Structure formats: C-alpha cells, structure tokens
C-alpha cells in the first residue's frame, strides 16, 4: 500500500504593477474604475498593449462605470477558498458604462434567478481599499455603488505593488525507495542502491538508475559507509523569506563516502563553524537520537530522516586536488 | 509537405486512472519502454527527447528533472522540456528533426492531476492582477464560454449531452439534462474526468521511419497559434487561433477522415467542429476524447497518438488538435497522412 503525504506550498508574491495597471489599482482606492483607450475601444481592465496586435497603447485613461450591464454570467453554488465571497454568487462578465470590453468579477445577487443577460449592477466597495481587484468586494444589483462598512478613503500614495499569496495543497505518493532510506536511517544505516546494469551506486532513495533507466528495488540495496570527505561546499547567507528558519550564515557541503563513488549533496555540518569549512575535511554522519522528531518526508537532497548532518572526525584532511570537482 | 519527411511511427500510453500510486517518473519509464520496444528500438537509439509536464501540477519545482531518470542518460542525448502538453513537445521534436542531423526522437506528456485540486491550481496560472486574485477557475471560464457558444447557436444543452454520451459510451441524454448545474449551463457530464497518466511517442525521419514500420504516419502539417491571455478581450463563440493553425497546417488540402480534438468540455468539441468546418463525414474523437480520459499534459499528445493509429490502420488523412489556457486560448493542429 503506497503511502501518500500531504503538503502545502505557499508562495507570497509581490508584483510590480507598472504604469497602466498601477493607475487602475490606485483609482480603485478612490472608488473609480479606469479603462484605457485603444482606437475606438475602451479596454477594461486596462492593458499596456493592444490585446490583438501587441502595439503599445498611449496612457489615455477613461473613467468608466461605476455601474454596468451583465453580458454573461454563471452561478457558483459552492465557492472555493479562493473565491471573493463565501456564499453562493455569480461570476459575470460586466460591461461597465463607457467600456467596450467586459470585466470579470463577482456579483452578489442572492440567487441565480435574480440575474439575466442585461441585468444592471454596481460595485460594492470595501471600506479599506489597498489597490487590489478585490477592493471591489463584489457587484450588487442596481445602479448605485455601495461601501461595505466605514470608508477609510483612498490611498495617500500611488499604488505600485500588489501582494498575492498562492497556496496549494498537494497529496503525493512517497516512493517506496524514499521510505526505505528514512527507515534505515533510524537504525543509523545509510542505505544505497546498486544498479544491476552499470553497477553505479545511488544514495538517498532515488529509486532509478538515470543512466540505464531501470527501476531499483529492495533487492538492489547496499549499506554505505557513514564516513567521508567534504569535496565542495557553499556558505549561505540566509535571506529572511517566509519559512526561512536560519538567521546566521551556514554551510552546505558535499560529502564523498569512503570507498564509493557516492556523493551526498547539500549536507548540513555539525560542530564545524562555517568559517572553518574547507575542501578535504574528514567527516562522519551524525544521527538523531530515537527521541528526536525527524522529517519523514521527501528524501531527495540534503539530510533526511535520522541523518541530521556531518561532523569532523579529527583525521588529517584529504589533499587530493581533484576532490573539489566532485559534486555529482 | 515539409522539406524533410517526419513521421510518427509509434506511441504508448499508461493505464489512465483517477489516481495512481506511481510517481510521474515511473509512469514515463513504462510509457517510453512500451513505445519503443515494439519498434525494435532501445533507449540508445534515441537521438532527441522532449518532455511535456507541469511543475505546478506536481507541486515540485524542477519535477521534470527527476522525470529524466526515465530516459536513460547514456549514450548522451539531446534533451528538452516544455511546460506544456506533450503535443507541444512533439512540435519541438518535429522542428528539431528538420535539422536533418538526427533520425529518432521520443516525446512524452505526463501528469498526475489527482495530486491537487485543479479548481485551486489553475486560477494561479491566470492573469495575476485581475483574474488569479478572484480565484477565477477553469469551470467558471468554461461555463462562460459554453453560454457564448449556445447563444451563437453552435451548441445546445442537448447537443452537449449528446457529445458526452457519444464520447463516454454511456448515459441517457434526457436523464442527464435533468441533473443540477455545476456552473450553469454546465452539468457534471459536460466536464472531463480527473486522470493520472502519461504517453510517449516515437518520431523518425523518412528513410528510417520506412525501415522501422510498414505505414508511417507522416506529419504533413503542424501549426499552433495563441490568443490574448484574458478571456475578457476575446470573442468566446469563436476560436480564431484554431482556424489559423488549421489553415496553416493545410486542412484544406484534402479530406479529413478522423479528427481527434482536445475538447475537455462538451461545448468545446461543438465549437471546434464549427470553426474547423467539419460536416458529418468527419469522424470526431472515436477514442472518446478528453471526456473519457483527461491526463493533464498528455491529453493533447494522446489525440495525436489516436490520429496516428488511424493511419497505422490503413487510413489516409487524420487531424489532431491540442489546446492550452482558458477558453481554448492556444491551439495546435497536426495533420497526419499515410502513403501507399
Ligand atoms: Zn545503471
């Protein structure tokens, strides 16, 4: 029975808006909706370029709406977590008065039967507007714009950036080979796999020989030595992006295991200051104690399972000048 | 006719299932082996590979790098990747083979769409300023396009149900039309299934192709075109990019016997038929199309595979179509022919 693991990946984006979208977003904070002239058309939302030809458009903005006409719509009986409203609503193409293209937005219409092609709608503004398409909470039936709650007024400075948080939850199968190396690590074993065709050895639960495109199974497992030599390294100065737990510069090293051709990449070091890391240092694996929590997840790249890093053995350095070339 | 003869000589697909236990690498390993083995080829015979897949769907940055384990890195191969359906990987291989210095290419399309919720993943690929922040999902856009296609008189809810019943080989039209809307005017039967799977296809240049198989499926026309990314600025009851791609691929040069169209939603097939000018003499989606199985990133490549099957089985001319983006934003047309 294959084990599945659920993981959520979140990307907090900051986007620069540019001269046209920025103008549109700034106007939203003022409860105004802008289009841009393209020949005889007025395009809403505005683009920097003609959608058909790609020709750059002059920054000739036209205020449209605020009311408009529903050109097409579809009822959303079960909103998703990403939708602007939590109760059933319509997504509609709304032709704002003065525009020649429709804007997609939500209509808070109560029920599907309240909507038809030609229905008049107007924006319901959020009280706090930041220069984001969701400053319009939704459109509502009728000709009159509304503000939801107290009005905190327009942005004091032009809006030039927007934030967008992308977050997705995935459910991925864990390859058997990956589970096997984590399990072996709990017994302080470094498990490898030998290719039956080319005899190359792979560590980290890869599960395939990429040279021969053959799958590697339990019958191909071998124990690997838990001592090796640092062949190359990087000193990382951590940028404080969301999720980064390191605050001080740290090392990630590549370890060539003794008597093999196996390189473990991106390994943490323990009891070795970043400034003391160099090519040729002899190291041994450090294992988590059975009481410690370990990462049961993906085994590819970096330390995994109960293998938490590498510590100097105190032996003299290896001085082979070719060591530095071994990162694969 | 292209300057160098290039033909599809074989293809294979994995089992198409709602959720597979296999990694994408494993799916590709099997698909490639199954595609090359009946031709008497080994991985060492492959000169060029191009893989179509999508990191967003697997949730792993550079997931296509581990997919390379399925190719066999020795002897060295020229390799490429497209973050698109395998049909576009085929397009790149077709261009590459025209250089004339190599003879055999393998292309793949692969995806595990069961990994995440498509309704939550796809909005993130939309316009980042105006659409993604609203969670504008594929079902919503399909419904808005379906409404436009119905209003233009190209489809009805009944003709859409007919497409579903024909493609899936099951269902009763009157009964289907009593079901609730998921997004009016779309009901469950108008939507594609969620499918995990992969496909691999083998291409060869003229003389090599003729040595390897009795009846190569020659690619005689191949083109793809794109429209504006935001459906607000498009006429949704038309598909000008399909029309141009089909014209440039030479649709008018002879009768099309079979057409495999990547129509994930029922109304898309009716719109595409209308734009391509098909009458009842064209057999559309005998495979069941994307409504029967919809392995994201491989669905288009499978269309080309089924069109090639028509040629392998003695047919003369078939058209395959693939699409990408909301409301048929980008469209690819490939025409395959047999020769006596
Ligand atoms: Zn091997």
Question: What is the element layout, followed by pairings?
Answer:
The complex is a heterodimer of chains A (328) and B (340).
Chain A: E1 4-16, H1 18-29, E2 33-38, E3 41-43, E4 61-64, E5 68-76, E6 89-96, E7 103-107, E8 120-126, E9 136-141, E10 146-148, E11 161-173, H2 176-186, E12 190-194, E13 201-203, E14 208-209, E15 214-215, E16 221-224, E17 227-236, E18 250-257, E19 263-267, E20 282-287, E21 307-312
Chain B: E1 6-13, H1 24-36, E2 48-52, H2 55-58, H3 63-67, E3 78-82, H4 86-97, E4 104-112, H5 118-121, H6 138-151, H7 157-168, H8 173-176, E5 181-183, E6 186-187, E7 196-205, H9 206-212, E8 217-226, H10 240-249, E9 258-260, H11 266-276, E10 283-284, H12 289-292, H13 299-312, E11 317-324, E12 330-337
Helix pairs in contact in B: 4-13, 6-11, 7-11
Bound molecules: zinc ion (ZN).
Zinc ion (ZN) binds next to loops of chain A.
Helix count, DSSP H or I runs of 4 or more residues of chain B: 13
Structural class of chain B: alpha/beta
For the residues shown, what is the average pLDDT of chain B? Answer: 95
Distance between the termini of chain B: 16 Å
Give Rg of chain B in angstroms: 19 Å
Provide an overview of this structure.
The complex is a heterodimer of chains A (328) and B (340). Chain A is mostly beta strands. Chain A has helices at residues 18-29, 176-186; strands spanning 4-16, 33-38, 41-43, 61-64, 68-76, 89-96, 103-107, 120-126, 136-141, 146-148, 161-173, 190-194, 201-203, 208-209, 214-215, 221-224, 227-236, 250-257, 263-267, 282-287, 307-312. Chain A folds into two domains: 18-159, no CATH class; 171-325, no CATH class. In chain A, 7% of the residues lie in helices and 39% in strands. In chain A, strands 5, 6, 7, 8, 9 and 10 form a six-stranded mixed β-sheet that branches. Chain A has a five-stranded antiparallel β-sheet with strand order 19-18-17-20-21. Chain A has a three-stranded antiparallel β-sheet with strand order 3-2-4, covered by helices on one side. The longest helix of chain A is centred in the first third of the chain and has 12 residues, at 18-29. The mean pLDDT of chain A is 92. Chain B has 340 residues and is an alpha/beta fold. Chain B folds into three domains: 6-116 and 193-212, Thiolase/Chalcone synthase (Peroxisomal Thiolase, Chain A, domain 1, 3-Layer(aba) Sandwich), CATH 3.40.47.10; 118-190, no CATH class; 217-337, Peroxisomal Thiolase, Chain A, domain 1, CATH 3.40.47. Chain B has helices spanning 24-36, 55-58, 63-67, 86-97, 118-121, 138-151, 157-168, 173-176, 206-212, 240-249, 266-276, 289-292, 299-312, and strands at residues 6-13, 48-52, 78-82, 104-112, 181-183, 186-187, 196-205, 217-226, 258-260, 283-284, 317-324, 330-337. Chain B is 34% helix and 21% strand. The longest helix of chain B has 14 residues, at 138-151. In chain B, helix 11 (266-276) links the parallel strand 9 and strand 10 (283-284). The model of chain B has no long low-confidence stretch (mean pLDDT 95). In chain B, the strands form two sheets. Chain B has a ten-stranded mixed β-sheet, with helices on both faces. Chain B has a two-stranded antiparallel sheet with strand order 5-6. At the A-B interface, strand 1, strand 5, strand 7, strand 11 and strand 14 of A face helix 1, helix 5, helix 6 and strand 5 of B. Zinc ion binds at residues 195, 197-198, 200, 209, 211-212 of chain A. Residues 195, 197-198, 200, 209, 211-212 of chain A line the site of zinc ion (ZN).
């Amino acid at each position: 029975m294959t084990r599945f693991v659920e993981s959520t990946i979140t990307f907090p984006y900051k986007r620069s808006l540019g001269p046209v979208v920025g103008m549109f977003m700034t106007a939203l904070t003022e409860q105004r909706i802008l289009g841009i002239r393209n020949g005889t058309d007025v395009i809403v939302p505005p683009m920097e370029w003609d959608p058909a030809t790609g020709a750059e458009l002059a920054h000739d903005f036209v205020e449209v709406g605020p009311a408009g006409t529903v050109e097409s719509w579809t009822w959303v009986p079960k909103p998703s977590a990403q939708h602007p409203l939590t109760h059933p609503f319509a997504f509609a193409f709304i032709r704002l008065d003065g525009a020649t293209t429709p804007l997609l937005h939500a209509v808070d219409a109560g029920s599907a039967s309240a909507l038809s092609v030609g229905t008049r709608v107007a924006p319901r503004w959020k009280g706090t507007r930041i220069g984001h398409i969701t400053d319009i909470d939704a459109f509502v039936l009728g000709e009159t714009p509304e503000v939801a709650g107290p009005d905190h007024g327009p942005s004091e400075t032009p809006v030039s950036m927007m934030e967008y948080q992308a977050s997705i939850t995935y459910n991925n199968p864990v390859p058997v080979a990956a589970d096997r190396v984590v399990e072996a690590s709990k017994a302080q074993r470094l498990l490898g796999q030998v290719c039956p065709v080319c005899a190359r050895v792979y560590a980290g639960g890869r599960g395939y020989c990429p040279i021969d495109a053959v799958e590697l199974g339990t019958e191909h497992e071998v124990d690997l030595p838990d001592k090796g030599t640092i062949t190359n390294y990087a000193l990382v100065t951590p940028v404080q992006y969301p999720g980064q737990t390191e605050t001080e510069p740290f090392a990630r090293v590549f370890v060539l295991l003794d008597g093999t051709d196996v390189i473990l990449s991106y390994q943490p070091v323990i009891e070795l200051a970043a400034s003391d890391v160099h090519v040729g240092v002899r190291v041994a694996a450090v294992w988590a104690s059975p009481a410690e929590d370990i990462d049961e997840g993906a085994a590819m790249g970096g330390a995994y399972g109960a293998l938490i890093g590498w510590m100097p053995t105190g032996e003299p350095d290896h001085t082979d000048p070719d060591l530095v070339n071994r990162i694969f | 006719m292209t300057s160098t003869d290039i033909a599809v000589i074989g293809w294979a697909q994995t089992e198409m299932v709602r959720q597979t236990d296999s990694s994408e690498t494993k799916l590709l390993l099997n698909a490639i082996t199954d595609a090359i083995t009946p031709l008497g080829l080994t991985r060492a015979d492959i000169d060029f590979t191009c893989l179509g897949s999508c990191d967003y769907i697997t949730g792993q940055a550079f997931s296509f790098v581990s997919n390379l384990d399925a190719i066999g890195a020795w002897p060295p191969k020229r390799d490429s990747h497209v973050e698109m359906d395998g049909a576009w990987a085929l397009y790149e291989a077709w261009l590459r083979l025209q250089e004339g210095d190599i003879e055999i290419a393998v292309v793949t399309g692969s995806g595990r769409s069961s990994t995440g919720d498509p309704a939550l993943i796809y909005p993130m690929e939309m316009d980042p300023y105006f659409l993604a922040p609203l969670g504008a999902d594929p079902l919503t856009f399909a419904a808005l396009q379906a409404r436009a296609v119905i209003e233009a008189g190209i489809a009805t809810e009944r003709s859409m149900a007919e497409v579903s019943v024909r493609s899936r080989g099951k269902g009763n039209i009157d009964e289907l039309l009593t079901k609730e809307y998921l997004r009016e005017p779309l009901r469950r039967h108008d939507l594609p299934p969620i499918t995990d799977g992969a496909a691999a296809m083998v291409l060869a240049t003229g003389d090599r192709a003729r040595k390897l198989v009795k009846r190569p499926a020659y690619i005689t026309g191949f083109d793809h075109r794109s429209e504006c990314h935001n459906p607000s600025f498009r006429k949704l009851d038309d598909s000008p990019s399909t029309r141009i791609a089909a014209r440039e691929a030479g649709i008018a040069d002879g009768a099309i016997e079979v057409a495999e169209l990547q129509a994930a939603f029922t109304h898309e097939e009716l719109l595409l038929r209308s734009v391509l000018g098909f009458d009842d003499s064209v057999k559309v989606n005998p495979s069941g199309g994307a409504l029967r199985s919809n392995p994201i990133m491989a669905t288009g490549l499978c269309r080309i595979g089924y069109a090639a099957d028509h040629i392998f089985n003695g047919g003369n001319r078939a058209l395959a179509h693939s699409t990408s983006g909301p409301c048929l934003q980008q469209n690819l047309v490939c025409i395959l022919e047999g020769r006596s």
